[in-house]
Amino acid sequence: MQPGRLAVVDSDALDALTGAQLRDGVAATDADAIVAPSAGARVRLRGEIADPGVPILGPEGTGDGGAARSHRLGDARVLEAWSDAAVGSIPALLAEGDPGEPAGAVVISDRLDCSVRPTALRTVWEGYDAFIRALAEGEHAADACVAGSLTLCSTALPAEYAAEWDGLRVRGIGREAMAGVPSSGRPEPGIVGVTIGADGSVATREYDRTSLGLRAVEGVGEHRATTLRAAGIEDRPSLADADVARLADVDGLDRSTAARLVAHARAFEDGRVLRQSDARLPGPEPVFVDLETDGLSPTVVPLIGVLDRAHGSYRTFAARDPADPAGAIEAFCSWYAALEGARPIVAYNGASFDFPVLGEQIAERVPECRSLWADAWTLDPYESAVGAGNAVLPGRTNRLEDVAEALGVDGIAASDDTTVLSGASVGRQFRRWHADPDAAPPPAWDAIAAYCEADVRALAGIYDAIEAADRVERPEAGTDAPPSETTQGRLGEF
Amino acid sequence: MTDPDAAGDGENAHGWSERPSVLDPEHLQEVPDYDSQIVHTRTQESADADLVPSADVLPRDLADALGHDLYTHQATGLRRLRDGENVVVSTSTASGKTLVYALYLALCKREDPAARGIVCYPTKALARDQEAALGDLYDRLGLDLSVAVYDGDTPQHRRPEIREGADLVLTNAAGLNVYLAHHTQWRECFANCALLAIDEAHAATGIHGMHVAWVLRRLRRLLAFYDADPRIVCTSATIGNPAEHARRLTGAPHAVIDEDGSPHGEREIAFWQPPLEDDLGEAYTMDEYLGAVKRAGAAAGELLAHLGLHDVQTLAFTRSRQGAELAAKGVERSVTDHPRSGHVSVQPYHAGLGTERRRRIEDRLGRGHLDAVVSTSALELGIDVGSVDATVLAGYPGSRQSFWQRVGRSGRGTEDALSVLVARADAIDRYVLEHPAFLFEEDVEDAVVDLANEAVYAQHVLAAANERPLTSEDERWLGSGDGAPGAPDAAREDRLQRAVEMWRTAGLLVGDLDRGVRYEGPPRPEADVSVYATGSETFQVRRADGDLDVAPIDRERAYREYHPGAVVLHDGTAYEVVAFEEDRPTPAVTLQALDEQVYTKTHSTKEITDVTARQSRDLGEGWQLRFGTGTVAIHYSHYERRDVQTGELLGEVEPTGLPPIELDTQLTWVETPPSLREAALASVATDALLGSPDSFAAGDRQYTFLGGLHGAEHAMIELAPLELRLDSDDMGGLSIDPHPETGVPTWFLHDAVEGGIGYARGIYDHADALVARTREHVATCGCDGVRGCPGCLMDVQCGNRNEPLHRPAAVAILSALERRLDAAAE
Question: Is B290 helix (H, G, I), strand (E, B) or coil?
Fold first, then answer.
């Protein structure tokens, strides 16, 4: 089944992003529809993206007295409800649906919000009572108790938010931080990509403005983007096609910088890696690894995916028994101990995450394997390329999925599962299950294993692309962009 | 700098008391324009050392290597630590408190070669200063112990080796706050930690102190996870409540070691009152008054010149960096005006100078190559610069503890010393000048650390959950029932539960306290803890035309002091706030350097709502003293620019353009009977009433009564430092008749920090003593007229331009309150 995809564009994004960035955002999210929750957004959006090619959802589209509207995006059923009346019409709308339709429905709305009151140690669900009341009023016309079958995606809640409010699944798909939550300031303007599974599962992915449009090209910061736009270069394809000599005449750019920017944009468009040094990846065919954990500070690693192309095998090590959380790690160690030949273990961002995590987990749970792991040959292509500056990777960011997509190696074809996953949602499933194995639903092991496999194979593709990349001359000394211009920063999360 | 021709006289050849006293009246006539500025002198008697042979406490070889005896407090400290107690060593400056924990670690190492120690300092500079000193000590003792600073400036490549191998790790609370999330990297250090030392613990108060307290609890929680149970040593200057403070800070009980065995010479203390320069007449405003009084800094400059020309090496303390710079310049001018010829080498010193420069000044001072240094509080804390002959304090530093700390900088070993307190033109300085015995009282101020601030608590709960899952066992570290027994901080039993529930509902925590609560939010929740602020929104402070090294500020402070158009001082320079941007990813204020000599004053209006009493004292006859919470809405709506020299208003009163700011915080308030007005005005003649402005409809009597309430409110805030270590910038007040919620004439004293900071609480707890002192001070003020003066009622920070204020009414009101408090106490 195909998931449905949305791009959520709020007023900050409309203020701060260029038309080219907005179009790029819609492309990046592969959106089936755009959600524009703020007043006047529809008109402004049409001004920026003359013909979006996809419907625009939002409170202004509901001309007919505020009833909820139903859409089919991919194989997912998505409703939008922007008023109490609209919420009230949901039960009837659901009751009208075909019996063959999936039971879960996803509702896009701005009705629900959360505000945290730290001085009173209380968090308040804003709008919840009104929502439930409105729903109940609508239920008289249909079967009762619709709340349990809904997933409410609120544009007023931040994209990482996921909770159950008395049985109602609530997900955030907005960009504004929750009121009262400590944060070091508001986030950069950007758009939120939402993927909706046919079963009502939701995954979000945020694109801030440093990873859209021209800003996504390595070496293009805010200032440079403005300069390029003034010179008539609005988007990446134009930059990739630009004449280096003409570009060098632009204020603030010299020849080598111009050449570098064009080369980066070209490689991005072509889906190539640009090697910048003579450092080569080591010879032997590596084994590729990815971990699925219960969070960024993991206490357990329930699933490990390993690809060994030399033996044509892909393996999943999983700890399905909550009483034996070390199961996956133990199996991995046994397998690794039996591996012949000196072959590096490769993980994307492994130096910061996977390898230290494995080290800690082994030390804690399988201490007899400590020396085995201490001697392991590990390699992190992200660290080598981006951290050490040996190569420029194409993609809007240096995240695995973006690089893989730009290279055209994004793993297995779209899954048939009705469930969509993200690193955050996988972590959530493991955490809830470990917190209460009896009451919580078991993790979706097969879907998670497939999700992990897709990442591992993508990693292998990236590795191959780095290895095959041609050497490109490093720019002359003294022309490197100042740090504030670098857009493809370090990875901070999944 | 001694005169080589001076006749030596026995062993005190260079001692102060052997030289003819420069401050005798005949010598004082040498100070230009002298006119009885010395109001009193007092003498602090000398004290001999109280020693214990070190072999009584240390193993023989270590005692021999040490080469000297221990002071009694050092010996007692070591004994009690060995007996398994935590200790708080609360003795004077330069009494060798560091030796207590340095030697304790050495003892631990003998029994367990793997033992490690962690020391938490209030500043990075102090940690670095001590790194060298501790390293030298261990070298002298012939011990192979490594000492290393681990803070934000430690290079990345050195960090793993320090974590894994340093015997004594020196750090600070802001650093610990972020290191704890990576505690697995600290496994070796934590698991073997035998000593946890908090140096200069008295400095951990206010907002900073709150964060230190929670960071230390999170640290102790992790140490327990790694099965470590270190002894805790807190070193502190003398405060009124060392056991309570140490307990509030760490969560553990401590034995108090405060019998000071260190020696000092006789110390003379002179109280100096700068004269009024202009004739002010009977009715004047605060600004006119300030313009007229010769500033304490300038007076200090004259004294430094005089002392320096008589070969007395002096350390002066001022309130601000700009004050230090100005006073240093003033010394040079005064030397020129002085009848005695010679040269005085003087340098300003403050945290805004580069490290290199500060090191040079410290070095030159220590070697006697500088005659005078004018410093901010930067030289108050333990950095070792040796001792000088004299100290001059430009203004009372705000607490007795701080006063003695600074005074203690003078006096070489057992030699005599001189200190001069130069009074500023405000209430508390005037109080000290008129009650010199106050400084010598046994009870020093209490240090205040507020554990009741829920917002700060909640932040740390998140950080702790991120470090390790929370369970009900963590009530021990993060629950209530903490702090001193019976303390109000033990507010509710289910505090951890409620915090977890709040964050769980907000989607940041998952699980329950039986099985484990995990953190599930954006990465690095500890990064949101700013150890110098409580608010969730901090503002960056930037310069339009260059760099500025200033910590981010709380939203409240941004509105109050950094509003558009405000003039602020940094590093000796005045800046104007040219941009105030709140509605962006990183809120920020932008400053631009200012050439003009102006300052700004902000006008504000205030409302207090949702007043909820948590504790009450019924004082009878309609009087209530209460403590609780409420919402304070302050509107910093307008400001005016004034000339620094003359206090004259420049231009019009301008709007700030800012909306009101709301704070949920802690308050203490006094509810009075409606009959109070007539009682307060009973002895006020009609022509002594305040003339109310046209806009005030209720008449002169009511206006005067409000002047009395307002005066009582001001005086209590200004004199609160007599009882508590507090920063009156973090307090505010409101007086109103009637208050819409209490229904009666009321005045409030509130914390000006979101969630509270413990000052209002402190005032509630010390109300009896504070009200008595305040009444007496206001009643005996020698000012003319009925409006009071900066020495009793006027407050520089008043948002109402110090109106209305009426001294007789205020005295009557405070007297009535004092009588009620006395009656209730029986």
Answer: helix
Q: Cα(A202)–Cα(B743) distance, rounded to whole angstroms?
A: 54
- Rg, Å, chain B Cα set: 27
B330-372 per-position pLDDT tens digit = 888 888 888 788 889 999 998 777 777 888 888 888 888 899 9
Task: Tell me which residue of B622, B733, B738 sits closest to B667, measured CA to CA.
Answer: B733
Nearest CA in chain A to B539: A185
Look-up of token digits 């400056």? B93
**Rounded to whole angstroms, what are the CA distances from A33 to A79, B34, B190, B289?**
12, 84, 53, 69
Restricting to A residues 379-438, those with a Cβ less than 8 Å away from any Cβ of B are: 427-428, 431-432, 435-436
Interface of A with B in 287-346 (CB under 8 A): 294-297, 299
pLDDT of A432 over the 50 cut: yes
Mean pLDDT value across chain B: 85
Would the CB atoms of A185 and B537 count as touching at under 8 Å? yes
The chain B residue lying nearest A425, using CA atoms, is: B520
Please give the interface size between A and B, counted as residue pairs whose CB atoms are below 8 Å apart. Answer: 111
SS3 B726: coil
* Closest residue to A295, CB basis, from B462, B502, B520: B520
Report residue A37 as tokens.
């929750």
Residue of B nearest to A162 (CA): B507
| Three-class SS state of B420 | strand
Q: How far apart are CA A424 and CA A197, in angstroms?
A: 15
Q: How far is B637 from chain A (nearest CA, A)?
A: 25
Residues A457 and A344: their CA atoms lie apart, in Å, by: 16
Task: Specify whether the CB–CB gap between B384 and B365 falls below 8 A.
Answer: no
What is the residue type of A424?
Answer: A
Spatial contact of B611 and B742, defined as CB atoms under 8 Å apart? yes
- Segment A164-191, tens digit of pLDDT: 888 899 999 998 888 777 665 557 889 9
> Which chain A residues are within 8 Å of B630, Cβ to Cβ?
none
Tell me the C-alpha distance between B168 and B155, whole Å.
17
The percentage of residues in chain A with a pLDDT greater than 70, rounded to a whole number, is 89
Phi-psi region of A121 (alpha: psi -120 to 50; beta: other; left: phi over 0): left
Confidence of residue A439 (pLDDT cuts 50, 70, 90): confident
The CA angle B324-B414-B434, to the nearest 5 degrees, is 55
CA distances from A89 to A79, A102, A135, A141, A183 (A): 11, 19, 8, 9, 37
Buried b (16+ CB within 10 A) or exposed e, B191-224: ebbbbbbbbbbbbbbbbbbbbbbbbbbbbbbbbb
Angle (deg, nearest 10), helices A41-48 and A19-29? 100
- Residues 6 or more apart whose Cβ sits within 8 Å of residue A309: A285, A460
Please state whether the peptide bond connecting residue B804 to the residue before it is cis, i.e. omega within 30 degrees of 0. Answer: yes
Task: Show residues of chain A in contact with B506, CB under 8 Å.
Answer: 114, 116, 123, 178, 180-181
